[in-house]
Amino acid sequence: MTRDSTITHVEHEFDSGSFQATLARRIAIPTESQNPNRGVELKAYLEDEMRPAFEAMGFTCELLTHPKALAPFLYAERIEGADLPTVFGYGHGDVIRGLDKEWKEGLGPWALTSRDGRWYGRGIADNKGQHSVNMEALRAVLKTRGRLGFNAKYLIEMGEETGSGGLRELCAEHAQRFAADLLIASDGPRLRAERPTVFLGSRGSLNFDLSIEARAGGHHSGNWGGLISNPGIQLAHALASLVSPTGQIRVPEWVPQELPASVRRALSDCEVDGGADGPTVEPDWGEPGLSPAERVFGWCSFEVLAYKTGNPDTPVNAIPPRAWARCQLRFVVGIDPQQILPALRRHLDRQGFPMVKIVTTGEAMFAATRIDPEDEWVQWATASIAKTSGQKPAVLPNLGGSLPNDIFTDVLGLRTVWVPHSYPGCSQHAPNEHLPPELLRDGLKVMAGLYWDLGAGDTPART
Fold it and tell me: Which residues form the domain of 420?
C-alpha cells in the first residue's frame, strides 16, 4: 500500500459517513469541565470513547491522575521500535459550557447537526473534532501499511478549558515515559479555512484587574462635583496611559525589543482573514509598521475586557465611589512574565496613578512559546503538508491565542508542531459552534499524509 492509498482510505471513510458517526457519538457526551456536575461524563469520555479507540489500534492505555486535576488523563502508547522516531500527541475532550438555550432553533450543543453546509455541535472545533481527525489518520496508516513505522504516544486531558490543572505536574512526573522527538497536535484555527496552517507555539496570556476604591459610598454630583475625585475618570486616564488611542502599547517592558528575522520571513505571506463571519481587520489599529499577521502572531496586545463604574443599569446623579476594569495582556516570547505586573506598577506610579490597585484574577497564566520557524522538523512537516494539499501551508511562529504549550516545550523538551483543523469563524466557545465538513475532510488527508511520512524513514535526525 502507498501514501496515496492511505489518503484515499480516509477520504472514503469520511464520505461513507463513518467519521461523522464517530464524531456525533463523541459530541453527544456533555463533557463540560466548567460544570462541577459533569465528573461522570468527563471520565466516561476517556473510558467509553478514547480507550476503546486507541486499544483497537494496538495502543496500551492507562488512566493517570493528579490531585490538581479535575478528571483523569488517558495516556496511550504504541511502541514499534527503539530506533524509530517517536511522536507525542495531545488533545482535550472537555468543552466549554453548552449554553443550550442560546443556540439557533433546531441546533444544540450535544447533537451533531448538519445544516447549510456546516456541522454544528459543542466540541467539533475545540477539540473533539480535531483530535478525532488525528486519531482517524493514525488508524488509516495502520490499516494500509500494517504498522505506523514510528512510535506514538498520546495524552488526552479533560481539564483544558479550566486551565489544565495538574497537566504540568503530570508531565514532570512522567517526563521520561513521555519522551519523544516532537509533538504533533491540533487545536485552534487555521489562518484561513482553505489554507493548511502550522503554528509552533502560542502567545502568553495574563489577566488582571485594575481598580480604584476612592471612598465608602457615592456622593451627589451637584453638591460635590469638582470637589472630590471621580474614580471612573481616574481609571479611564490610567488605562489610557497604557495604550495609545490606536492600540499601541506604551509600557516598554510589555513589548519585545525586536521581531526576529525568521518570524518576519514566516509571516511574510500570511494574510489574516476571518472570513464572512469574522470582523474586518482595521489597518490603523495596533503597533504601527507591522503587518496584520505580525501584529497578532509576532507582537503583544493589551485589551480592556470589561469596565464598570457607578451603576450602568440605573445611573444616578452621584459621583461613584469606585471603578474597576478587567484587563488582559497577550504577549510573545521575549517578554518576562514575572515582570509584567511590576512594570505596570512602576508605570502607573510614574504617571501619577498610585491609587490604582492591581490584582491578579486567579486565572492560569499561559507562558509564551515558539520554536524556530526554520527548524528542520518544521521544514519537514510543512513539506509533507504541501505535498498532500498542493499548496504552501501558512507557518505561524505562534498562535494568537494561548495554549499550555510551554508544558511540552519546557517540561518535556519537545519541538511542537500544531496542525489546526478549524477556522477563525467557527464560533468556538460560543453558541452554534461549527465547522465546514470539507475542512475536516481536508484535515484527514493532511494528517494521513503527515503520519505516513513520519513512518517512511525520511525524517530529520533524532535528538
Answer: 3-202+367-454
